Amino acid sequence: MTEPGASPASGALKREELFPIREVSRLTGVNPVTLRAWERRYGLIQPTRTDSGHRLYSLADVESVRSILAWIERGVSVSKVGKLLARSNAAKTPLTPVYQEVVAGEWSEWRTQVRNAVSALDESGLERVYGQVFSSYPVHVVFADVLMPVWQELLLRQDEFGRGSEWVFFDSFLRARVLQRLQLARCGQQERVILAPLPGQGRELELLVAGLLLGSSEVAVSVLGLGQPLEELTLVCGKLQPQALVLFSNHPPADDLGRQLSRLALGLDCPLALAGETADLMGEDLDGTPVACLGSEGRLMQRRLRQFLAGHLDT
Fold this sequence. Notes:
By secondary structure, the protein is α/β, with parallel strands linked by helices. Helices cover about 55% and strands about 10% of the residues. The strands form two sheets. Strands 5-4-6-7-8 form a five-stranded parallel sheet. The chain has a three-stranded antiparallel sheet with strand order 1-3-2. The chain is globular.
């Protein structure tokens, strides 16, 4: 994506762009008063300042604002968002500043291409970009840094005229491709894990992507549908005999979820784990219980699942 002969540093500097608070408000839909409160009261974003004291926000700041907004839309209080963002950032591989700017710029360019294809409802164009992204990056980067951010943007704006059609188009496209990849990944695999949603929570694509990210060359993941009753999972696992059952949700946990999970774990013949952003919220609550927390970041979930199956992950 960088021009021939251009150094990574110069490419990063060209891509670096700073936005005033009004432009960030326009891009994200969050008013300036709220942006200032997130900075002063909670320390969620840290814009740079001009000599005259005006705030300037980077592309990374804009993405952070969108992440904060997505958490709040799911019902997480602002006071808890900082902890979740910190865990998410800590789970990512540290990069040098220049390289981080380079790859962030590349991901931004890919997201723009995805947006353009979706805006035109151009399935062949989207298929082409989709294939190019997969040929350039590992699967966790493709979804976490390119595809799902665009999906999330459209989800938050689907009530706007025209955006609803774009979101349905993109959601249907991704669900079909992820299902295909899950089916191919299961071929010939011996070790099997069942992934099930917590009832009434989440969207199908998030669940399917989690299944894709949890799987590996050693572990095949079978994904149960969104309507799967929690109380019948002991029956399902008794029939399928998986190596483990993983529950998934990206929503704030119910007050009694810890008790429900502990009770479920006692009735299973296989170990139980929790994945998704709910696992980040419940990590401390589940310490010392039979339920393991796998986290929500793709590489971390996969690594913890392998440790869990090998008996090396503390619960």
